[in-house]
Automatic annotation (TrEMBL):
Species the sequence originates in: Anoxybacillus kestanbolensis
Domain of life per record: Bacteria
Name of protein: Nucleotidyltransferase
């Protein structure tokens, strides 16, 4: 197992670092969006769209990171749902229902043409998804990135 992990180490670490940077960017945009005056509808819309887009990119990066980690230990998982389910089994994800909802929202963003639905998805990102992603990245850092013994 450790031999296999060694082959993926650099790719996993780089993917983790990229996901972490994406999360920080998303959190910064969310913080900035809260400073916009209520009457500035255009800027609120620009920030909302930016939050949703950054979330889409982060969620995509996240499941691909999980896929690499699991592949390094011999598991071939090729879908976000399979990766989240396995992360749940590993104890890295606490509430699988949030992740199922995240997947539904992520899939919906490509097909939402209604401002209210888009606004609801943005609100879920802000209220629930960011914390769930941050918790998962913290678990990956503890269980995979910082565990030097698994790389040797």
């Amino acid at each position: 197992m450790s031999h296999s992990l060694e082959n993926y180490k650099e790719s996993i670490v780089l993917s983790y670092q990229y996901a972490f940077r994406l999360l920080l960017h998303l959190k910064n945009v969310i913080a900035a969006s809260k400073q916009i005056p209520a009457e500035d509808e255009l800027m609120k819309e620009v920030y909302r769209d930016s939050i949703v887009k950054k979330y889409e990119i982060l969620e995509d990066q996240l499941w691909k990171l999980l896929s690499k980690i699991f592949k390094a230990s011999g598991l071939e998982l090729h879908s976000p749902r399979a990766c989240y389910r396995q992360a749940f089994k590993e104890g890295w994800i606490e509430h699988i229902d949030i992740w199922n909802d995240m997947l539904s929202s992520r899939n919906a963003t490509a097909h939402v043409y209604n401002e209210e639905d888009y606004e609801q998805i943005k609100q879920k990102i802000v209220d629930k998804y960011v914390q769930a992603i941050e918790a998962l990245l913290q678990k990956i850092k503890e269980e995979v990135i910082d565990r030097e013994n698994i790389w040797n």
